[in-house]
């Protein structure tokens, strides 16, 4: 604001109405019920009271009694979708109807959030902001809109926080105050002011805070601010965190930080240069696809098929989305095989969901989706009946739309498990703008309802399509047989360099119970040469794959390589899975090959190469926490793959025991495998996992067996631990004995479920 206007403002007086308590329907209450709630309104009206002060006549000023009656009538007879909407209505009333030069209003809702004393909004507007404006105004004429605040007051949660040993033992109360600055004016943006749902923001932050264990309030506050900026997409936030129990003779100790998107972008750039990744980074933030400026809308689309080649139908639909529908696919869910609903006399469906950005308006997007369905053979038939492809718009930005042709959000979204399961993979914390619950809450609520019904929960299987078959991760632990066509592998080098011997070995492993054969043409043991010509590696593996397929070999074949050219040649020869020990990081072309061929991929964690991975540098993990670092780094590899176009349902994660890890660290991975792949706050939640402990050095370190080929009994123990930890695929040399171990383990941990 210019100096002259500041001087003019200083000459104005203020009329105050403090803590006016009214009843009003504003959004939903803390239990998400649409009902009347108390609101507390305070108003400051800026005006010149000189005439009233000189004459002692109240009509020469703004009568606070009239203002109170006006606000009461407005609040108690109207229904508002949010506190911001109510605050905008009050500030307009004061400036336009009562003639205040400027008005500041604070609207507070006590107990609006279960664990906070209140939430609210503070707005300031001048009379000039409303000239020629009928509805809400940004406050851009006066510049006062920069000062808008949305706040959460005294959010009381429990967390591990502190450096002292006793503070690490038990959770203590922390009190958090959040102030969000929603106005685009503060960041010189021309877009509309964004309405933030505090309930959703608090849910996201609460889940992190109550599972965290920070030593300093400084780190605690900065991370809370970052998650709000990154996952909740606020523009600017102030976070104050207090520890009431920290100092005996003080009410609290704490810290206050303010962060914005400018800070976040700078930090991200620094992390990118340093090769680091923030733990709670979201998928969309890793997007590498070039997005035209006109693709300004975000939509979530449900995918379904139960006629013909279901997988191919979905793949073709996704291709058409990008090629024919002015859309770019940013992310996909996992795939689920689900029983039919409504009309049940039909085959099972394959269901998923995708997140897209598009330049099309909702009805235009719907029209394009119908074209895709028609092109893939969908015809008019029984309602909810069989169809080669079904595409439904679930969400579009955060709009509510209800027309004869289209309803957004999708009308039946909340009653369909086959929609909510995949939607939660990519939008778990997204709030339904009409039902006021996140997708995760809607699914949890639906599961409780169906569990208590006569039919019980539906049988819904998370699946991965491998070589025209569906692998159901809940059914069993799959056995991957190792076939090395190398002269120098650590335990079986030189045994299968001959094509006929390799083919015979694959056939034998199939008879012994293998579900998939992993063929590798390069040794990646510590110290091995992993820089020999790609042509030589291709010559080692492709003839074996071709011969197996020519002989009618029916098992899936995985190609074990980090080279894109080798992977591509192997897939063309008949391989159906790519297993990359570098997680797609060593060859810049690998991720595009994975995306192009749409085959399942195993992404493994490692550091360095065969010669350097066991160095002190590569086996040193931050805070000596190999579990957390491996999770973060593997998560980063997955984000890169998704951003390159690899479908989420095609990704298998491998923590990489034996690679860039000491024996002690390998046992840590094995000990905490369950936390890594399926813990309550796991970064890898939902992703199937592969473990390859067979004959590794860490087994010899525990058993004293130096010869790798003689480590079968130790391997059996590691295999059992892997299954107990939730591994979905076990990669082994000795197929039959390990198959038997897995059958016993599955009988204990999987088939009893």
From TrEMBL:
<dbReference type="InterPro" id="IPR006157">
    <property type="entry name" value="FolB_dom"/>
</dbReference>
<dbReference type="Pfam" id="PF02152">
    <property type="entry name" value="FolB"/>
</dbReference>
<keyword id="KW-0547">Nucleotide-binding</keyword>
<dbReference type="InterPro" id="IPR011005">
    <property type="entry name" value="Dihydropteroate_synth-like_sf"/>
</dbReference>
<comment type="similarity">
    <text>In the N-terminal section; belongs to the DHNA family.</text>
</comment>
<keyword id="KW-0289">Folate biosynthesis</keyword>
<comment type="pathway">
    <text>Cofactor biosynthesis; tetrahydrofolate biosynthesis; 7,8-dihydrofolate from 2-amino-4-hydroxy-6-hydroxymethyl-7,8-dihydropteridine diphosphate and 4-aminobenzoate: step 1/2.</text>
</comment>
<dbReference type="InterPro" id="IPR000489">
    <property type="entry name" value="Pterin-binding_dom"/>
</dbReference>
<keyword id="KW-0479">Metal-binding</keyword>
<keyword id="KW-0418">Kinase</keyword>
<dbReference type="Pfam" id="PF01288">
    <property type="entry name" value="HPPK"/>
</dbReference>
<keyword id="KW-0808">Transferase</keyword>
<keyword id="KW-0460">Magnesium</keyword>
<keyword id="KW-0511">Multifunctional enzyme</keyword>
<dbReference type="InterPro" id="IPR006390">
    <property type="entry name" value="DHP_synth_dom"/>
</dbReference>
<dbReference type="InterPro" id="IPR045031">
    <property type="entry name" value="DHP_synth-like"/>
</dbReference>
<protein>
    <submittedName>
        <fullName>Dihydropteroate synthase-like protein</fullName>
    </submittedName>
</protein>
<feature type="domain" description="Pterin-binding">
    <location>
        <begin position="477"/>
        <end position="743"/>
    </location>
</feature>
<dbReference type="InterPro" id="IPR043133">
    <property type="entry name" value="GTP-CH-I_C/QueF"/>
</dbReference>
<keyword id="KW-0067">ATP-binding</keyword>
<dbReference type="InterPro" id="IPR000550">
    <property type="entry name" value="Hppk"/>
</dbReference>
<dbReference type="Pfam" id="PF00809">
    <property type="entry name" value="Pterin_bind"/>
</dbReference>
<comment type="similarity">
    <text>In the C-terminal section; belongs to the DHPS family.</text>
</comment>
<comment type="pathway">
    <text>Cofactor biosynthesis; tetrahydrofolate biosynthesis; 2-amino-4-hydroxy-6-hydroxymethyl-7,8-dihydropteridine diphosphate from 7,8-dihydroneopterin triphosphate: step 4/4.</text>
</comment>
<dbReference type="InterPro" id="IPR035907">
    <property type="entry name" value="Hppk_sf"/>
</dbReference>
């Amino acid at each position: 604001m210019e100096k002259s206007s500041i001087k003019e403002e200083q000459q104005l007086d203020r009329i105050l109405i403090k803590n006016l308590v009214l009843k009003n329907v504003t959004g939903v209450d803390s239990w998400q019920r649409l009902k009347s709630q108390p609101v507390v309104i305070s108003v400051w009206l800026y005006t010149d009271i000189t005439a009233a002060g000189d004459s002692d006549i109240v009509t020469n000023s703004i009568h606070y009694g009239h203002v109170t009656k006006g606000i009461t009538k407005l609040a108690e007879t109207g229904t508002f979708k949010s506190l911001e909407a109510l605050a905008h209505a009050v500030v307009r009333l004061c400036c336009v109807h009562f003639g205040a030069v400027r008005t500041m209003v604070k609207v507070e809702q006590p107990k609006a959030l279960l664990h906070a004393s209140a939430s609210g909004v503070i707005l300031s507007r001048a009379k000039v902001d409303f000239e020629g404006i009928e509805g809400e105004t940004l406050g851009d004429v006066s510049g006062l809109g920069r000062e808008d605040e949305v706040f959460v007051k005294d959010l009381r949660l429990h967390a591990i926080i502190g450096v002292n040993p006793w503070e690490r033992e038990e959770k203590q109360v922390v009190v958090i105050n959040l102030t969000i600055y929603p106005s685009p004016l503060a960041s010189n943006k021309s877009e509309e002011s964004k309405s933030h749902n505090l309930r959703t923001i608090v849910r996201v932050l609460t889940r992190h805070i109550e599972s965290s264990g920070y030593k300093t309030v400084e780190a605690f506050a900065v991370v809370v601010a970052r998650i709000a900026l990154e996952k909740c997409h606020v523009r600017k936030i102030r976070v104050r965190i207090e520890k009431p129990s920290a100092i005996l003779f003080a009410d609290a100790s704490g810290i206050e930080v303010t962060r914005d998107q400018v800070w976040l972008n700078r930090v991200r750039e620094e992390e990118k240069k340093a090769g680091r990744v923030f733990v709670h980074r979201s998928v969309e933030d890793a997007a590498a696809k070039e997005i035209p400026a006109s693709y300004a809308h975000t939509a979530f689309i449900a995918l379904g098929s139960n006629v013909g080649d279901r997988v191919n139908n979905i793949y073709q639909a996704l291709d058409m989305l990008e090629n024919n529908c002015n859309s770019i696919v940013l992310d996909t869910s996992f795939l689920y095989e689900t029983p039919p609903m409504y009309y049940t006399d039909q085959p099972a469906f394959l269901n998923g969901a995708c997140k897209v950005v598009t330049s099309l308006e909702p009805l235009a997007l719907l029209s394009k989706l119908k074209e895709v369905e028609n092109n893939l053979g969908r015809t008019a038939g029984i309602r909810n009946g069989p169809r080669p492809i079904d595409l439904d718009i679930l969400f579009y930005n955060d709009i509510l739309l209800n027309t004869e042709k289209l309803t957004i959000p999708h009308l039946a979204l909340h009653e369909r498990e086959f929609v909510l399961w995949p939607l939660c993979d990519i939008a778990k914390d997204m709030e339904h703008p009409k039902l006021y619950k996140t997708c995760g809450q809607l699914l949890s609520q639906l599961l409780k309802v169906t569990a208590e019904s006569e039919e019980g929960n539906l049988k819904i299987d998370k699946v991965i399509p491998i070589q025209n078959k569906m692998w159901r991760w809940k059914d069993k632990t799959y056995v991957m047989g190792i076939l090395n066509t190398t002269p120098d592998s650590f335990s079986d080098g030189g045994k299968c360099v001959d094509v006929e011997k390799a083919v015979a070995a694959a056939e034998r492993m199939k008879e012994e119970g293998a579900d998939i054969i992993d063929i590798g043409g390069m040794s990646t043991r510590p110290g091995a040469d992993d820089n020999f010509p790609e042509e030589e590696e291709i010559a080692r593996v492709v003839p074996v794959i071709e011969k197996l397929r020519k002989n009618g070999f029916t098992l899936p074949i995985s190609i074990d390589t980090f080279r894109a050219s080798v992977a591509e040649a192997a897939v063309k020869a008949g391989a159906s899975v790519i297993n990359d020990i570098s997680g797609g990081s060593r060859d810049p072309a690998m991720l595009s090959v994975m995306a192009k061929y749409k085959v399942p991929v195993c992404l493994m964690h490692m550091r360095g190469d065969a010669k350097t991975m066991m160095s002190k540098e590569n086996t040193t993990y931050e805070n000596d926490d190999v579990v957390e670092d491996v999770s973060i780094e593997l998560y980063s590899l997955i984000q890169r793959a998704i951003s390159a176009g690899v479908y989420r349902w095609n990704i298998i994660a491998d923590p990489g025991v034996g690679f860039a890890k000491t024996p002690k660290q390998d046992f840590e991975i094995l000990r905490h495998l369950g936390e890594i792949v399926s813990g309550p706050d796991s970064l890898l939640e939902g992703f199937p996992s592969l473990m390859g402990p067979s004959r590794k050095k860490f087994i010899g370190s525990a058993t004293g067996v130096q010869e790798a080929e003689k480590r079968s009994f130790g391997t059996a123990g590691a295999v059992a631990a892997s299954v107990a930890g939730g591994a979905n695929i076990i990669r082994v040399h000795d197929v039959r004995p390990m198959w038997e171990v897995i059958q016993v383990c599955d009988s204990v941990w999987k088939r009893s479920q």
